[in-house]
Amino acid sequence: MTARAWLRGGLSLVAVAETLVGLWQTLLPEHFFGSFPAAAHAWVAALPPYNEHLLRDQGGMHLTTAVIFAAAALTMDRWLVRIAPLANLAFALPHLIFHATHLDALSPGDAAAQTLTLLASVLLPAALLALSRSVPRPSG
Questions:
Q1: CB under 8 Å to 68, separation ≥6 — which residues?
Q2: How far is the C-alpha of 109 from the C-alpha of 68, rounded, in Å?
């Protein structure tokens, strides 16, 4: 597989994941709060209180990110495939730092799983940003 194919696949993967999380948060914020990522491992509910407004706004942010990543995957525009992961890192890195320093309410297994999941949410856009160098400059 070429770097361009890996890049398109990674951009598409993020678009799908952001869509799923964004729809869940926007349409069912209370369910998301009590059930993310799974009912037996409610990571969001570990840091109460529930706030419908905040969850719906966050869901909208995830949907916005999904649109940007989908557009990047579809067009493979050089600037868009670089901006999408960079913009995502602006969210993902502080998100990882916050949660990595607020693990007290989670079991050791959930703390490790959450930290690894959030680390992946930083490493994937970082890898996509590196792969974006393979997209040629427009001619002309």
A1: 80, 83, 84, 87
A2: 33
Range 130-133 contact pairs with CB under 8 angstroms and sequence separation of 24 or more: 131/3, 131/6, 131/7, 131/10, 132/7, 132/78, 132/81, 132/82, 132/85
For 138, what's the count of Cα atoms within 13 Å in the CB-facing half-sphere?
7
Query: What is the structure's pLDDT at 14?
Result: 98
How do the pLDDT tens digits run along the chain, 140 residues long?
899 999 999 999 999 999 999 999 999 999 999 999 998 899 999 999 999 999 999 999 999 999 999 999 999 999 999 999 999 999 999 999 999 999 999 999 999 999 999 999 999 999 999 999 988 877 65
Three-class DSSP category at 104: coil
CA distances to 8, 41, 89 from 119, rounded to whole Å, are: 21, 18, 11
Distance, in Å, from the CA atom of 44 to the CA atom of 28, rounded to the nearest integer, reads: 14
- Is 122:89 a contact under the CB 8 Å cutoff? yes
* DSSP one-letter code for 50: P
Identify the residue whose tokens are 């040629």: 136
